[in-house]
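Researcher: Next sequence.
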Amino acid sequence: MTGAPRTGRATGPGLESVAALTGGGRTGSGYLLSPRLVLSAAHVVDGADNMSVSTVRGGTEVCRVVWRRHDAVCDAALLLAPRDLVPPDVAHRLGPVHWARLADASPIGDCQAMGFPRIARASGGRLDIEHIECALRPGAGLVRGRYVLDVKDVSPEPAGQGSPWGGMSGAALFARGRMLGVIVSMPENFSSRRLEAVRSATLLDDASFTAAVAEHSGAPPLVTELSVAAAERKPLVLAGVLHMMRRDLAATIRSHWAEAAGQFFAEEGRAEEQSEGLRHLLAWLRQFDDPVSDDIEGLRVLIDRRLLNSGVTADLKLLHLLAWLDPEGDPVWRGSAVTLESLTDACLVGRMDDSGPTRELYDDLCLGGVLDALAGFTALRRLEGLQQAWDQAWASSLNMVRQAPGVPDDAQEWAEHEARGMLLAALLPHPGAGERLRLAHERVMPPSDGVLAWYDWLRSHSGGAGSPVEWLVRTDLAAFAMRYAELAAQQIAKERMDRRTTEALQKAHLGRVRQWQAYEAERRAPAARLGAVIRSVVWVGLWGAVVTAAVWLVWGWAEPGIARSVSWQCVWLTVAGIAGRVPAALRLGVAYQPPLSGIRRRARARVVRSGLLRTVARGIWTSLLRAGVTVGAIAFQGALVHDSTVVSLLFFGLALCGVFLAGLGGARSGAVFRDWDEEYQERLRDYRSRQGGVPEGVLRKVKSASPRDRAEAYRAATEQFTGLDLGRTDGRRSDRHG
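Model: Next structure:
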C-alpha cells in the first residue's frame, strides 16, 4: 500500500499511486510500486516497449517496459519511468507496498480497486478515475488460476463496442491495506458485474518478477499472509449507530460532531477518571492491532499524546481522532468542512469579523494545534510543519515591530492580534491566497521613502521578497502607514497655513504701525500745527464776535456805555479762550478740528442715529437754550456793571480765569469746547488697543483644525491690526478713521 511512511495507514489503494497508461491506441490502469516503478497488465503494453504513464497528482512520463509476462495464468508488466512520476512532497510519503497471500479460502467482502475504465470517462473522452468496491471469492476461478471479483453497487451497461470495464486492466486489487493482485479482464455471462484479477501469489512466486521489483524499487516485495477468518471486532455505538470500520465511525463523527465530542471527551479528566464514553472508544481503537494493515504506531501516538492529554481540547482531540480514522476523507472541524480556501477566508476575512464561523475558525487557528491536526488528512498534507513556520513568522514580526522606532500604538496592537492571519495567509499553499494577498497589496498606497521613518525602518527589516513578514509590511502595516502619512500631510499643510497666517498678521501689524507713524508725522508737521492755531483763533474769535454782537443787541440801544464795557469784557474773554486753546491746538495739529469744520458730517451722523425729525427738534431746542443763556448772562453782567462795578469786575475776573482754564483743558475734558478732538482721541484709543498683539481667542482659532475657525481668526486679526471689517460686502471700511 501507499500513504504516509507509517505502516498500514491506508485501508485501500492510495490515490496518489494510481496511474493511467496510454499508447498504441490503448488505455489501461497501473499502480506505483515506487515513485518510478509502475505495475500494470501485460496485455495493455503488448507490442510496445514504451507507454505514456500519468499519475493523479503528478505529471506524464514515457516509461519503458522492464518486465512482462502474458500467459493463461499471469498477465502483468512492470514499467520504469526516467524520473519520479509524482512531486517530491508526494514521493517522500510513498511507503512500501504490502503484498498479501491468502491464508484460507474464506470470502473477503471489502476489496477495493481504482482505475480508468471506459464507463468513467468524462465528456470529450477524457480519462477519469473510478473507485470500486468488490467481494473476493477465492474458490471461484480456481481452475483458471485467477481471482474472481463481484463488483458492488455498480452495474455498467456497454457503451458501443467493447467492455464497459475497458481501461480498468492493470488496476491494483487491495484488501485491508494489502495488495492481492492485478485486475486484467471481465468474464463473460455476468452482465459486467464480475472482474478477474491475477493472483498475488502468481507474481510473488515468479523469481523474475521479484528480482525486477527489487532492482528497480530498491527492495524486494514485502509479503504477509492475510487471514480472513480473524476474530471480528466489537462495535462502537455513536448517534445510535453501530460502527465496525474506521471510515464508518469517521463519517458519523463528521455529521454528529458535537455529539461525538460530548460522548467521548466532555467529562474525561485524569486517566483514572476517564468517562465511560472515552473508555469504550479506547477499547474499540485498541482492536486495530494488525501490525500490517493497521497504523499501530500512529494509534499509540493518538491515544497517549492526544486523547489522554488533558491539555488538548475536546474538539482538537476529535480532529486528531478523525484524521487517524479516515485520513483520505474530508477534513472537518467542529462539523464544518475545512479546505485551503476556507482557511484562507479565515485568515483574511475572519480576522476582520467580530463573530461568525470564519472568525471562530481564525480564533481556533490562533490557539494552536489545529493546523498540525489538519495536516493528518491527505487533502491537507501540505499543511505539515506550517504551524511552526507560522509561529516563527509571528515571533519575527512582533520582534521587528517592537524594535522599530516610533510605530504607533494601534499598529503595534494590530501586529499582535489580527495581523497573524495575514502571516498565515502568506504561508498557505493555496494559489487563491497569493492572489488575494496581491489584491490587498494593490489596494494600499504606502508612503514614499522618507515620509514615515518607522515604516521605512520596517520595510528595510522585513526580510526577503515574498516572506510572510514582508507581506505583512506591504499590506496591513502599509495601510496604517498610508493613514498616518495622510495625517502627517494634513499637519504639514496646517502648519504651513499657520505660518502664512502668522506672516500675514505680522505684515498687517507692521502696516498698521507704519500707517500710524505716517499719520503722526503728518499731524505734527509745522504747517499742520500752524493750521490748527489758525482754526482755534478763528473758532474762538467767531464765538467772541457773536457774543459781542449779542451784547450790543441787548444794551446798545439803551445803555451804550454798558454795552462798551461788557463788549471789552467779551474781547478779553475771547483772548483768554484763544490763549488757553492755542497750546492744545499746537499739540494736536491736524487732529484739532473745531466743530464747525465737521458740522455736515456730524449732522448726518446724528440723523442716522436719532432720525431727521428728532435731530431737527433737538437742534432748535439746543439753539434756543444757548441763546437764552447767552442773553441772560449779558443782561446780568450789564446790570452788575450799571449797579456795582466791583461786583462786575469780580464776576469778569472769575469768568476770565474760567475761560482760560477751560481752554487749556477743554480738549480732553470737553467741559466747554466739547468734541474738538474727539476723533483723534477715538483713533488713539483704537490704535493703542491693537498694539497688544493678537488676542488669545484669535490665536486658538488660528491653530484650530477647522478651516472656518482659521478664516474667522484671520479676519479678526486683520481687523485688529488694520481696522478693516472683512465681513462687509460693500468693501468699505467700518472704521471711519482708518
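Model: Residues 236 and 280 are 7 Å apart (CA to CA). The radius of gyration is 56 Å.
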